[in-house]
Fold this sequence. Notes:
TIM Barrel, 3-stranded antiparallel sheet, globular
Amino acid sequence: MLYRLVRPLLFQLDPERAHRTAMHALELAHHAGLTSLIARLPPASPRKVMGLEFPNPVGLAAGLDKNGEHVDALSRLGFGFIEIGTVTPQPQPGNPAPRMFRLVQARAIINRMGFNNEGVERLLMNVSRAQYRGILGINIGKNFDTPLERAAEDYLYCMRKVYAAASYITVNISSPNTVNLRQLQRSEGLDRLLGALVAERRELAERHGKRVPLAVKIAPDLTQSDIADMAALFIKHGIDAVIATNTTVSRQSVEGLREADQAGGLSGAPLKALSTEIVRQLAAVLAGRIAIIAAGGIQSAADAQEKIAAGASLVQLYSGLIYEGPVLVGTVARALARASDQH
């Protein structure tokens, strides 16, 4: 209710400024002990996925807290897990502004942020100061000026850096806002990248005395053949989870709307059906051998239940929070807990 009163004011601001304002307000509420006025914590509904115990299946998708600055405040909203990033080896400003656009009529967002972040060292400093001890995913990417043929070096660098701090690590090869990044989803390049990451993970596991699960975040703009080829590689290399999906470059569902022709990735309600279909296809070819984490278009409990029914074990929220507010976390978590109890 509170967010519904505030949202019209936030929507008067540029989307990036509104984001900063909302996160500042959340921090203030957290330090004042008032987050219970924003969102009610859901009951525990444990799930074991990737060998980790999740207190509930509703997570925060990467992108909202790129630098891990707000982990403690966000954790008070009831998330079962939080994913921060995408982080790159070196700080980078991302693409020029304006670079985020609301399509309110479609309950959607277009962004072309371009992995803007303060670098992996700053993220780790922020994480070290946080009191949060829940499940923390760290999403890693490459710097925009690293040639594609050397992309593995950036991913390996980030993985080494974040390994000790992460509950799981997500390899982002699917953002449409870093030039040519999605080429890493092609079979030959993906095979090499995953091979390098898994070999490095073996060494890191021995050094740190723990095996950190690896997830890969994929695009929704894939053919059935693409999905089958990628799934085979995930199985071959022992990847622990697939996050389906990132944003889409398709504009089929928003044609004619104001700002719909802006470059970037489209998220929100128009992505729901496309991302759910990718989850369904992945579930068919993976047959339970690798976990699926569903993201894309979840703006209600029914949307989340649809993802679970399609084959996902966990779900992640982002754009839905912008349109529905923090209460969405508990709403979805409680609905999934009831459905699990009934099952």
